């Protein structure tokens, strides 16, 4: 199954979405998906596994996850003890601060998460209280819908992000080393795909690389990640292409080739299936 490209209601004045204190079984969780907004997930209780980009995390009470845009992710709640979480989604336009002193960007914590491939922050009591208080504020303001609620949500979000960004260098942990979450060969495969998108990433080549039979590889990969290896590779290449489209002025054909697409026609087809737009339209719509 191809990962879902999640979209949110278009509201230029209030590009913010909250899923508050939700307990979900595995059947209620979205399959592998990605989106162009920033996401924060706080774990109140329960347990499970969170697959983010190429890493498997154990979901534990008090954990806070930071998901930058354009990252494949999926939660796998435990069947007998599912997680209760709050998820915050927002467009970077919502917290834009032109003209203000930005010695510390409110998005610093997300930038560090992407650069270090570390998406989880365990919290001390002070920061945990700050985070849960902000989440409660978001919920109350959206529920009551009083005058000024958009501004209050925005400033509460900015305060939370700036406080968390101060803690990033010291609090963001290394990827969970628990081998029970995924076998080492699967971790090695995910890292290889991330580092070598232009290489031959067909099933046969990857099986040879990690010395695993095709049947075992396919079955375990799908059970752990939630999609086939073919769909995952295409999704990762599309994610890279989206980043290149916005970060460079390179020609579409050059980007397609550098991201591992041998056919420009196939790249256009998959890109439009994924985003709903052609690469050129996507670049224009998301240009700063």
TrEMBL record:
Residues 187-285 form the HTH araC/xylS-type domain. The lineage of its organism: Bacteria, Bacillati, Bacillota, Bacilli, Bacillales. GO terms for molecular function: DNA-binding transcription factor activity; isomerase activity; sequence-specific DNA binding. The keyword Transmembrane helix does not apply. SUPFAM superfamilies: Homeodomain-like, Regulatory protein AraC. Keywords: DNA-binding, Isomerase, Transcription, Transcription regulation. SMART domains: HTH_ARAC. This is AraC-like DNA-binding protein/mannose-6-phosphate isomerase-like protein (Cupin superfamily). The keyword Transcription regulation applies. PROSITE patterns: HTH_ARAC_FAMILY_1, HTH_ARAC_FAMILY_2. It comes from Paenibacillus phyllosphaerae.
